[in-house]
Amino acid sequence: MESSKVIHEITPLMGKDSLYIADRRKKEFTYPIHNHEVFELNYVEHASGVRRIVGDSNEVISDFDLVLITSPDLEHVWEQNTCTSEDIREVTVQFHLDLSDEGFLSRKPFYSMLKMLQRARKGLAFSLDDIMRVYPLIDSLSSVKDSFYAVTQFYSILYELSKSTQCRELSSSSFAKVEVESDSRRVLKVKNYIAQNYKNEIRLSTLADIAGMSTSAFSRFFKLHTGRNLSEYIIEMRLGYASRRLVDSSDSISEICFSCGFNNLSNFNRIFKKRKGCSPSEFRDNYHKTRIIV
0.90 exceeded by the pTM? Predict the structure, then answer.
């Protein structure tokens, strides 16, 4: 059976270019789901009702939307859905920056930008407050004639966004193919164990032993370092792998359920719908509708 693929977009950004800026007005979104090597900041206005898919995140946007994506593997698309606007504006900025420990972003003045760009491997969506704070800079970016000032203005946008306390990650780590992030050695050992054993039953006592702590102390420690309790973290990882399988395989939902660590199909369906806003079969159908055969 021929499988549906994601378009790998070849962008206009060339080797020595710093930015590619596209500022356009349109009546509908027609470009299919895709990914690309370069980073992207995408701003959309007057497009209420458009469906935005980033990894295994599937949301209907309101009048203003701003998303940052920095992973070459993270597929994404803005679909027309129920949007009836006749005057959609989309500003897309594609760019590339060195996120290594040796790059200039690792220096103190830029460190918040580096952390944000690393988080954006899962896709980052910004709040309306964030958008309004940088709107004048985005609005005028395509009209800046001097390339130096265009770049510095764009970096100002990134810096302002890096101060956000309201932005949120869109895709799960396992769907986005993002490796377990750098963390304290103790947390990293636990996360790696979960990533390797998510298909099996994972006991709190086992993880506490790996961390060298009592179960009660470990539970508090894990919540402090990840912002989620242990069961939420494990469910998110399992759902990420299940979402990936729904998109990339023709396995039955039952097969995917049990192979991703869920031991009850009705429970899997209930949790999936609660977290993703649709059933596993609806998720598969919606996602495949956005793909094309290449």
Answer: no
Task: Kindly tell me the burial class for residue 216, based on how many C-beta atoms sit within 10 Å of its own C-beta (0-12, 13-18, 19 or more).
Answer: exposed
**Tokens standing for 133?**
């704070």
Residue 3: its pLDDT value, please? 40
Least Cα distance to 234 among 271, 268, 261, 272 occurs for 261
Per-residue pLDDT reduced to its tens digit, 242-261:
998 998 889 999 999 999 99
What one-character DSSP code corresponds to residue 104? G
Sheet arrangement for strand 168-169: 19-26, 88-95, 39-45, 64-69, 124-125, 168-169
The amino acid that residue 12 corresponds to is P
What distance in Å separates the CA atoms of residue 261 and residue 256, rounded to the nearest whole number?
9
Of 277, 293, 292, residue with least CA distance to 56 = 277
Strands of the chain, DSSP E: 7-8, 19-26, 34-35, 39-45, 51-54, 57-60, 64-69, 76-79, 88-95, 124-125, 168-169
Whether the per-residue pLDDT at 2 is higher than 60: the answer is: no
| Calpha distance 183→89 (Å, rounded) | 39
Neighbouring-strand partners of residue 57: 54
Distance, in Å, from the CA atom of 38 to the CA atom of 215, rounded to the nearest integer, reads 43
Give the C-alpha separation, 28 to 78, whole Å.
10
Residue-wise pLDDT tens digits, 161-179: 999 999 999 999 888 877 7
pLDDT at 247: 86
